[in-house]
Amino acid sequence: MSELFDAVDALLASRATLPPPAERKRLRAAHGLTIDEVAGALKVRRATVSGWESGKTEPRPPERDAYARLLDKLAELYPAPADVAAPVQDAAVSATFTAAPAPAEARTLYTGPAPDAAVMTASENTQTPAPAPVAAVPAAAPRPARTTRPSSTSRRPGARKAAPAGTPAGDTDPRFENGPLAVVDVEDGKVLAYCVGGLVLDVPAKSLPSLVDWTLKEAKLGQPKLSGPGRPADPLIVLTEAACERYGLPVSLTAEEKDAGRIPEGHKVVKQLVRAEWKLTKRGFGPWARIYRPAKGSDRQCVQLCIPSWNALDARFWGDAAQLPPAELARVLGVYASRVMTPRGSTAVTGLELMTALHPPTHAVRDEETGALRQAETKTPGSLGSDPVDCAPCEAPDGHPVLNALDLPRFHVRGPAEKLFEEAYDWARPMTDDECTLRHLVGLDVNMAFAAGANGLNVGLGEPTHVKAPAFDPKLPGSWLVDLSHVDLSKVKVGKEWVELDGSLLPSPFTPKGDRPTGPAWYATPTVAYAVELGYDVAPIEAWVRYENGRYLDGWYTRLRDAYLATMADLGVDADLSPEDFLAAMDGYKERDPELTIVVSAIKATVKGGLGKLRERPRGEGWRPGERWRALERPTWRPDIRAAVISRTRINLHRKIVKHAAFTGQYPIAILSDCVVYASNGPSPLDFLPYREGKPLPGGFKLGINPGLVKHEGTQSVLWGEEVRERFNAPELNLARSIKDGTVTDVDNGE
Question: How buried is residue 627: exposed, middle or buried, by Cβ count under 10 Å (0-12/13-18/19+)?
Fold first, then answer.
């Protein structure tokens, strides 16, 4: 009889009820799971899960029953919008603000153009808004906010009506209907808050504490969460110089305050906040100040301040954003917020925060006995968790406390056999006689090179494990001590065929300076895997590997890629242009909309800065070598992940260079990070890139705006290059650094 029952159970399992394909995808995304993670758990291919979510195929037993169980559990955690009936959401699911907005009849809402659908991301469209807590409705609402449309004659000289192109739409979530942020300014004695889309709010607040209260209770600012287990973004308030004066803050910081990164704790405004029972983070009241009260359940009270005149918007990454009028600044920051996330600090800080927002360390689980949601004690699958982990000794920068156990001699300088040196290229060589007969030097720049290097990269999620004499596994992230000096670039495999090249004209793929290794050295997994790809055996001596791993940066890459492509499309550079049209579209694109050009610059800086933060060094703090510093307490202090991304980015570029050389016989003369320079008879990339009927060399350089493709960086004459090198008596001066505009002010030291 039991066999009959088993057969019946199997029959039922074969028809396990599944939600529609779109709902399957929503549930997976709501929990922050990737297709690869689901495929790995069910022991099927990635394409199989993708087919289930697109409706092209349906799962069969035994995977169907397991897949149905997964979706049922996710549906309990993330019910469809139509199923949400509870007026108050549990604290473990998300945080909400403390007060409901002023009554609807007391407000005039902006009724401008319809929102741009391209601005909303898939993750935003699938979120279920959390209703405001019933207890949060105030007994007596304060003066309601007035919302107006700015007139064409702005109060500020030189300001203009907010431009529609690239202006983010207001969030559909009613909690954040006025957008993610506001720029607060004072005009004709009135305090006004400029929001996205041209919306302007009256601000009744007469002190900074009351401004914080107004922001949380009336302004309806914020942004939906980017991941199912995550939380909504806190509202951002940007204070102009006039607003700083109005609220008792200095317009600029003194030299001492700049060094400290904050105003003194005894400042009157800080005292006002303390009296109102508001708190500041350990960073204090600086250019990016966070003002909060400890959360009570779902009651989250936190406001982010940005003060441009205190250099919050660093000109290296934000251009002249700090000098923009309020409406224009709101547009720039609003586009960035809608496509990347609401800024949480510098572009570097925001890049790191974006990783965490997409992979929150913990998540809510349902108690099987009570049915209530509670925060899980274990980390969310695919995240880095809540606790920091120490890096391997070879991955540690100088002065890290993990090196104390090695008992190194004082002033000892670690070499490649002791320390992981995975950095971007800085390489150049003298031109050959044949190259000197050509007329031009043409620079190619890889779009979003480090973002492309992060895409699909398997990285460690937990602690490293030390292994002696391991067998190399290209799928296992880690650091490997291995001798690659035997790899000869004069004969390598390109695809499945051996080819002969002039190895003296190529940089080594294994060192940032392009020098051939002379013995064992530490390398990240992508570097060692490339040696195998080139056709050479490897025999690691030892390794620090991470058995818990995953594609942690995939969502981060996708978010930043989409932000970059959408903004470049607004500037007239689409992803599907022909090579000729692409070069024409890139010519002068920055002048078409200078404000959106600022956003492009900030997105790029978010990529590089976020990766740099993974190995942040001490910043003052009275630190001494051998002691811990503040950044080490973050789960996102992960130098191994940074090294893996840089390794893969450098290898990606070298692979294109080798394929180009094998097909054309042309070799680079200089490489700087993501820029490579070739000698050419013509001034355009099309004069030397091997396009046939509009199609590029497979695996080589391809013109286009997508990450990993290349654009024209600049062209100078061969005579210019030779004259510059002769003037500085530096035959290997890196011309890639100056190829864009031809300006060389001093001998390049690589810093």
Answer: middle
